[in-house]
Every structure is written in C-alpha cells, then in structure tokens.
Specification:
- The protein is an alpha+beta fold and 158 residues long.
- It has a 4-stranded antiparallel β-sheet with strand order 2-3-1-4, with helices on one face.
- Helix 2 packs across helix 3.
Amino acid sequence: MPEIDEIDHRLLRLLREDGRRTFSEMAGTIGLSVAAVKRRVDRLKELGVITGFTVQIDYAKLGWGIEAFTELHYAGATPVSEIVRTATDVAEVQTVFTIAGDPDALIHVRVRDLGHLQQVIDHLRHAGNVTGTKTLLVLGSWTRDALAPRASRIAGMK
C-alpha cells in the first residue's frame, strides 16, 4: 500500500470537493508551493490513488430522476461474465455489483419514470439466465464525502 500522509489526504479531500481546483488554490489552502502540490498530485496519479477526474451530474434535471437498485438472481452456475454482460448491455444500468450469496448481482438503474423502470426490469427478466429480480426504489441518498477511513470507530475494530 502506498505511503499517504496527512497532506496527501488533505489534497485528496480538496480534489474530491472540486476536481477542477487549481494547484495554486490548493497550495494556498494547504500551505505548500504550487510545485510541491503538483508533485504530490502527480505522485498520487502515478500510484493509482487518483484514477481520474470527473463531473457530477444532476440527472433529474436531464429527465432521468428515478433511481432504483435491482437484485438479479441467476440460474445455477451462470458465469460472472454473463451476469455482467446481461446488465451492462442495458443503457439505463449505471453500476453492476456482482456479489457472493443471494442475489447474484445488484445493479443501480437510472430511468425517466416508473413506466420506463418497468420496461428495463422486464428486459432484464428476459435476459440470459435471469431467474428472478427484486427492485428497490431510491427515495434519497447520502454519500460519505471523506476519504477511506483511517481507523474504525467501532470498539475493538482496527
């Protein structure tokens, strides 16, 4: 695991808040030179800690305001590659999680309305070796904005 110090964590937090933040802005906030900030960010990219920069989109403003998670159950010994292919072939699928246990996969779906969701679920039910689905509508969400936890707050855990 790469050596990441407190300054690196602070830089990562700043970039997570705004991936377009300039080196100069970060240098002023952290108290380093612009060159030092650039070297650290370049190092974090080389180490693979920073894997890219992205934009956050308000999908509701684009007409895709309904989110759901759908559990997918597959027949017998369906290969993981088929599970992933079944879901990634559907444009409305945002993320595919293959998981151990029951169900076999959990997918994050984004759609325009409930009728559109029904079409997507019907399509998935008829794809490959899918034997069943269970869909949960997202009412709201929260995402931890902090970086990877450094220590557990649960008593006795490290």
